[in-house]
Design a protein that fits this description.
mainly beta, 9-stranded antiparallel beta sheet
Length: about 150
């Protein structure tokens, strides 16, 4: 039974194609570049994990003005856009999100409005020990995240 569970987990990881991106990541504010009007953060941490055949993104943190935030999005890579149950930093206006995995070290995240129009796209790329999340619509801001070592 344990072997079957391990085989299913390995299968889910290979389905995602993004094994190297999985884990917990913490925003490195000093290395990040923001649009002038971007929301700023005191702290932003997210975890990307495989759940069944889907990828789950969970985030939490504190905006620069002291307001806390948290959000979760689960979607099938390459599947249809899905509306998160609550807004995330990707979907402040209630957009739907989709993931597209490209190779082992890159994911596209796309936000679409109710009419299916793309409102934002982010390219998430592993760069050594850092994860770069670059918004490629409406200009270019890059958030740099450092991997958080797993707890024993």
């Amino acid at each position: 039974m344990r072997l079957l569970a391990l085989a299913l987990l390995a299968s889910a990881l290979s389905l995602s194609g993004a094994d190297s991106l999985l884990g917990t990541w913490r925003l490195n504010i000093e290395k990040s570049e923001f649009f002038p009007k971007d929301t700023r953060y005191k702290r932003h941490v997210f975890t990307l994990e495989v759940v069944g055949r889907q990828l789950r993104y969970h985030e939490d943190g504190i905006f620069e003005d002291g307001r806390p935030f948290a959000g979760t999005f689960t979607g099938l890579p390459g599947g249809p856009a899905t509306k998160p149950k609550a807004p995330t930093t990707f979907t402040p206006r209630g957009e739907s999100l989709s993931f597209e995995v490209v190779g082992d070290e890159m994911i596209w995240v796309t936000a679409t409005d109710k009419g299916g129009k793309i409102t934002a796209r982010w390219m998430v790329v592993l760069d050594g020990q850092h994860l770069r999340m670059t918004q490629v619509t409406g200009g270019s801001s890059t958030r740099v995240f450092d991997r958080v070592p797993p707890k024993d």
